[in-house]
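Long-time lurker, first post. I've been practising inverse folding by hand and with some scripts of my own, and I keep getting stuck on stretches where the structure tokens seem ambiguous. Below is the full token string for one chain I'm working on. Before anyone asks, I'm not after the true native sequence, just a reasonable design that respects the backbone. If someone could post their per-position residues I'd love to compare against what I wrote down in my notebook.
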């Protein structure tokens, strides 16, 4: 089936936004001036389209996820040496460090902020929000999410052989936990000394710590695929909705800051605004400009931190894909951690649309090769059209759902 492309969603339009974000602004580290410039570009573009009700939410964040993974893995790595040196008290402290470090890393794997978040969140970032009302009565609200910031080159997320990431990271977490538990039983049963096997439990995280430290020396990437593609699509959809508004679905475009510092912008948004769970639907776009396209059916970077999209959203995504075979979208399990994790944690109905390469991995993920030159305009265009089609599908739900009245979200310019 061929159909005309909705005004606003043309490939050239998408690529214009891509060029500004990738080449005029360039890498956009969390909390940086460039991330701010991206937010300003979004605001300017939306205003040119005639949107006036653009809100900005400021929040505090760290500028790298190194601020979480390095202290947490360092604590775990120090656990065994302290246990070996310090007698019974040393073992108790060592146990606490191993268990605390492993727990913090596991929580990070679900994008939950660490207990020391307030200490490390010392810089300012922003979310940009615009609500686009339908022509008729509002029955539900759909959030489209695209993050403004970009990551460094990182050789640990993913490693050169991505298929090893889940087994290795899971083993590292479980071994550190085992090490911590073994020290605790030593304390309880007054066992002395540290056994050779106990030393080994901290080994994978020691290697992890070195990799985390090395990655902090790497340059920030252009982030064409991750995630200028999402920002470009959100802006194009803003334009398309001007020409063809939805009937009963309010579309909220949520441009988040500091996703790459572990989803700080999304977490801040949910904590501050707490939109209703029942009448909101969330679509996150990640790296949709290269390779093939999917809606993600399973997420997570370890076996113990997997998370899943909302079944109702999966059904809608599958229906949409079936109706538009020309867009070539399919359901797929992915090695990915993104803002759907926060949404799941808070009980929201969410799904992620992502790209994948020939091996089934995120294309050019956290590598310098994630640049505009490696964007495939046709993939980007298909992602925009699929997102648009999914919006139409949601708008056509009619009375199938039991909508709740939408509470007014507080206005924030904090
Ligand atoms: Zn991303």
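-- Answer (accepted) --
I ran through it position by position. Result:
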């Amino acid at each position: 089936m061929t159909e005309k492309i909705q005004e606003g969603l043309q490939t050239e339009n998408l690529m214009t936004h891509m060029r500004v974000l990738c080449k005029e602004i360039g890498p956009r580290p969390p909390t940086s001036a460039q991330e701010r410039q991206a937010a300003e570009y979004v605001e300017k573009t939306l205003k040119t389209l005639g949107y006036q009700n653009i809100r900005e939410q400021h929040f505090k964040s760290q500028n790298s996820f190194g601020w979480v993974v390095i202290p947490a893995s360092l604590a775990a790595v120090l656990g065994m040496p302290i246990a070996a040196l310090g007698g019974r008290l040393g073992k108790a402290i060592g146990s606490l460090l191993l268990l605390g470090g492993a727990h913090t890393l596991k929580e990070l794997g679900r994008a939950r902020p660490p207990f020391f978040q307030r200490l490390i969140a010392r810089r300012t970032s922003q979310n940009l929000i615009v609500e686009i009302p339908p022509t008729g009565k509002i029955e539900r609200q759909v959030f489209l999410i695209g993050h403004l910031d970009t990551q460094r080159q990182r050789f640990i997320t993913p490693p050169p052989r991505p298929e090893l990431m889940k087994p290795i990271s899971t083993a590292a977490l479980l071994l550190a936990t085992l090490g911590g538990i073994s020290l605790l039983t030593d304390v309880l049963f007054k066992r002395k000394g540290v056994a050779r096997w106990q030393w080994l439990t901290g080994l994978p995280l020691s290697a992890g710590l070195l990799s985390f430290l090395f990655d902090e020396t790497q340059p920030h990437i252009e982030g064409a695929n991750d995630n200028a593609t999402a920002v470009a699509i959100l802006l194009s959809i803003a334009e398309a909705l001007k020409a063809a508004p939805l009937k009963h679905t309010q579309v909220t475009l949520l441009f988040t800051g500091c996703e790459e510092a572990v989803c700080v912008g999304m977490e801040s948004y949910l904590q501050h605004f707490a939109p209703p769970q029942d009448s909101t639907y969330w679509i996150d776009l990640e790296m949709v400009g290269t390779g093939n396209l999917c809606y993600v059916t399973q997420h997570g970077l370890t076996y113990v931190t997997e998370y899943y999209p909302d079944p109702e959203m999966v059904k809608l995504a599958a229906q949409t894909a079936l109706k538009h075979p020309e867009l070539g979208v399919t359901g797929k399990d992915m090695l990915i951690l993104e803002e759907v994790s926060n949404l799941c944690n808070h009980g929201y109905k969410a799904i992620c649309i992502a790209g994948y390469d020939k091996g089934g991995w995120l294309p050019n993920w956290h590598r310098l090769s994630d640049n505009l030159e490696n964007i495939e305009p046709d993939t980007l265009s298909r992602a925009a059209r699929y997102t648009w089609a999914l919006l139409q599908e949601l708008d056509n739900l009619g009375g199938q759902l039991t909508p709740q009245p939408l509470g007014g979200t507080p206005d924030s310019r904090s």
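A couple of notes from the structure itself: The radius of gyration is 22 Å. Residues 147, 226-227, 259, 286, 338 surround zinc ion (CB under 6 Å). Happy to go over any region you disagree with.
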